[in-house]
Amino acid sequence: MITPGLVEALTGIAGARHVRTAPAERLTYARDGLPTHRRVPAVVVLPGSRDELVAVVRLLAAHHVPFVPRGAGTGLSGGALADGAAVLLVLTRLNRILSLDPGNRLAVVEPGVVNVRLSAAAAAHGLHYAPDPSSQTACTIGGNVAENAGGPHCLKYGVTAQHVLALEVVLADGRIVELGSPGGEPWGPDVVGLFVGSEGNFGIATRIAVRLLPLPRAVRTLLAAFASLRAAGEAVSAVIASGIVPAALEMMDQSCIRAVEDSVYAAGYPRDAAAVLLVELDGHSDEAVAADTETVQELLSSHDAASIRVAADAGERERLWQGRKKAFGAMGRLSRDLVVQDAVVPRSALPDVLETIGRIAATYQVTVSNVFHAGDGNLHPNISFDARVPGLRTRVDAASTAIMEACVAVGGTITGEHGVGLDKLRYMPLIFDAESLAAMRAVRRVWDPEERVNPGKVVPVHACREWTGVRSVEWGVRSVASRDAPADSALRTPHSALDT
Amino acid sequence: MSLLDRVRALLGDDAVEIAGGADAVPRVAPASPDAVALLLGTAREEGWRVRLEGAGTWLPADAPADLALTTRRLDRVPAVEPQDLSATAEAGIGCDLLRQQLADRGTWLALDPPGLAGRTLGSVVATATAGPLRHGFGAVRDHILGVTFVTGDGRLVQSGGRVVKNVAGYDLTKLEAGGFGAFGVIVLVHLRLRALPRADQTFVLAGTREDLTQVAEDVAAAGLQPAALELMSPALARRDGWALAVRLAGSAALVAAEEAGLRGASGGRFTALRAEEAHGFWMRAAESFATRPITFRTGGLPDSSDELLDLLQHQVGDEWVSASPGVGAIRWAGDTTVDRLRRLRRTLAGLEVPLTLERAPWPIRSAVGHFGAYREGVGPLVAGLRRTFDPGEAFVVAVEGSD
Prior knowledge:
- The structure holds 2 protein chains of 2 kinds.
- By secondary structure, chain A is α+β, with helices and mostly antiparallel strands.
- Chain A is built from 17 helices and 18 strands.
- In chain A, 33% of the residues lie in helices and 18% in strands.
- In chain A, strand 17 (367-372) and strand 18 (381-385) form a beta hairpin.
- Chain A is globular.
- Chain B is of the alpha+beta class.
- The longest helix of chain B is centred in the middle third of the chain and has 15 residues, at 252-266.
- Chains A and B meet through strand 9, helix 7, helix 8, helix 10 and helix 16 of A and helix 2, strand 9, helix 6, strand 11 and helix 9 of B.
């Protein structure tokens, strides 16, 4: 329980300026980047150093008080929200790049370092930090680790998990553990890999060792316009199957194109196209990148690209990318409220799934815009709406569920980079049976037996089969059918995605 | 009812091979993931101790147990999707057979693990034994999209999925990849593939270790991005001196550009191998590791490779060594004692370099452990994870050893 005495003790550690209790101050932290969830934390603490953070965690452990770690709050799953029973630990003041070792292409950072700042620091040595979420000018490396963040260039270079070598972590009980090794060999089971993407449930990374990559010497960026989503989707499959791995392969549909073009981020996208593909190729050799670019251009043309534009210089390339990276912001102009999805489908299923999403939008009479990492099959259908319109919120919720089910039905998953958080809890049983969910919960309890860190996120506890305790008598002879029985249907749970 | 009668009643007569391994432990080969679950659920009830086996070509089949569970009948490849560059394979499929099936569909799993060609996929994943291609394509875990595994008490658990990007739930796949079977038996693996490279060329340069280390640095400094950059001891490379082998794979344009870069960085000293020579070169090196009694790997920073090679030479010899200086990984094979391994591991730990024992006879495995001591605070976590996935301690796996 959060008592005045506890608040006083927190103030003693972090200083009065960095412990926020006034309602107006706490309201600032009631949402993350996804506007559909709202939780007002009991107290907000902004520790100024690792030692302060550890002291705060130990204090909260002693009082058995739940807490939620938070970076810049740019997440898109309601994952960094704390309710009135929990303390929100904002880590943005832990923002030092502790070391940068160009020879070994290694950097060690605190969790609050902003993603793009690390790449900017590394650029002086001809290096960069590859994961580049669209929010990279604001989001933190600690948040990236918690969410296993992706980004457009993860198609070629891999998501956050592939770039984290070692971690120092403070556990829920205040113990400090060192995971992994600077060279990347796990030093035991791969608990670094297990930690990355655990959405804060396993503890707080206080020091993060990441791998840096050489900046590519040659880069080509193409913008291809298509008359249909299907044609664009088929072109994506063709590029992937060709064996050429673009650095990025992004798609935007007409609704998104127009939102961008109507905004300050206008990039010169063709407004009449049904879809555009933004393709980037990079590498060490100009000749090789030029040859691959030519092959990709031929593939795009043979898949009915209406036009292909090659960025003439770095300035044009930057404009093309700015439109893509600010697309979410641009879509904010379409309506008052926005639901952002994050499903992934097999890439060959993209054309069909995009058409299915169009049909779902028509059925539920909602506006869906698509801007996504096509090369990974990572869709971001966004539903724009005005929550004040009676009944619309219910339709949006139903359309969201239908889209998710359609993606899962073709072998996809419910989140590719945003995380489960609060938003996708109800979808977890669509892809994991009760046993697998129970296994996740059991693992969480190894790290955090009281389930105090970021409580109520990731694993829908109601849908878990019992893990510990006496086995049921029939266990040893259960049939295949019973083992495969789905967990309680997500759709029957009381939780709503639009949980405000 | 005897153990064998129980197993036969559960899985049928043909799942049991009485003659078992060298120590006559009965070998049981379940034919489906559910049969594995049924067997391990029963093992938990009966208190049987179980050792895990694949094709029996990598880890010696010598751990003391009541029965050996082999995955070799789990050898199906339910899906290969060239358009998605993904595949699903059961854990008992031999890597050679899998490679052929993938190649038939124009796809490629960019892993070249040590050992014989018929090593099972499950063995490679469970031991996380990547080969020289780690330089260009990453560790074993980077090729795995998801797994299904069975816990020590017979629970069938899915992790990850079959799409190339997925953050739904905790990534238990990472625990299974390189867990040596301590956290479950992997029964099904979803793989990330690549298109079969249009061009694939290997270049070799022989010389002194010192000279080749410098060349490797020059290649890295030139910004080249080979699929493999491997420094190999003379015995391993079957050359008079040490050898630096560079593999370039990808589009014809990429390989041509990299080749030009390689020649520039090395003064044109490398010799190109013909396709069949290259195949034999890499295969023989991989197989050589299975001919020595002990194999381990270390993982340091790239700039520590030379120092680590000196250390190995001094403490355990360097007859059979292969190093990826670009990523700091070294694999060693040979014969040595428990005491020497422990001393080496302690020395390496002081340099923040872990030593993972990949294979050794049981007396050495059980004494030294695959991992030995962990870094600060990790031991209780690993113990908790083991209790979670093997509450009855059914799996006979030498995780930490007795040191």
